Amino acid sequence: MSEFKRKLNDSKESSQNMLSTNVKTTSDLMSIALQAEREAIRRYTQLAESMHKGSNECAAALFERMVTEEVEHERLLLEWMNKEGISENPEIEPIVWKDPHVSTVYNDEAYDPYYSTPYKALAFAVHNEEIAFRFYTHVEANSENKAVRKYAEVLAREELGHAALLRAERRLAFHKERESNKESPRLDPELIQNQSDLLAAAIHIDRYLESQMLIVTENKPQIEALIKETNQQISINEKTLSNQMPPGEEIVKNLEQLKANHPEMNERLGNPELELQRLWSCCDRSFAFYDAIVETTTDEAVMLTAQNLTSNALDRIGVLKEAFGDSD
Known about the structure:
Layout: H1 3-13, H2 26-53, H3 57-84, H4 108-111, H5 118-142, H6 146-180, H7 195-215, H8 221-242, H9 249-268, H10 275-296, H11 300-324
């Protein structure tokens, strides 16, 4: 095994900033960038084929367009390398982007040919672009090679630009999907006006997660402990909520809609093979919900509670990774 490959494997097992301390030359950096584009082409091609098999032509078309865009990115990289006289390093193997701080499991929604939508496909693409941006930023900050830092800065700007374009498309897709799918309720962070609203939502989320955990325990002591911990958190939140004003009418109505929709959702996504995927996706959506509140609330108490709930959601995702492995 080459020295670079050994360091690359070591970095995957560490909590360092991905590969940032291992990129020594411009050839290494540009070769990693090429492999990242090729991985995107492979993955999006695979997803497009999966969407076709599931008769999800709308999502398939979007993934096929992403393939076309990534092929063009690869061509431009090769053109740039040729112009700058940078050779590809044959020792750099295919790259799978990983971020040690952010779960990527929610992308399972984009993978599912029966559940994916253009919005979810675009969310998946944005996530990948953001991981790439963070990687190049880390390289720029940590490399001792001036040329590597220069090229990493350019690559980071490129990824940031790609992500910005995809985010704009994602917003349009979100509103279009929301208008065409109003019958499927979602927990809305904009309805959280005070701590009572947030606690009511947290209790609802935890009860649903607990019910999903009970399905997939599979004699896993980590999950059994997580169920116990979740149950304790529900009790704490219920006791805290009982000493505060009742939650507002809007969030109560939203939660009632979700409860009413649970049987239909469980039936639609009731495939036993998807039970773990659904639990993981629910944990990640809860993280996104709390994180959105942290970003938007003007109430300090709500923000602090939401931050704590965000941390708890990440801890749960970590337990799932430990119990079942990273299914990315």
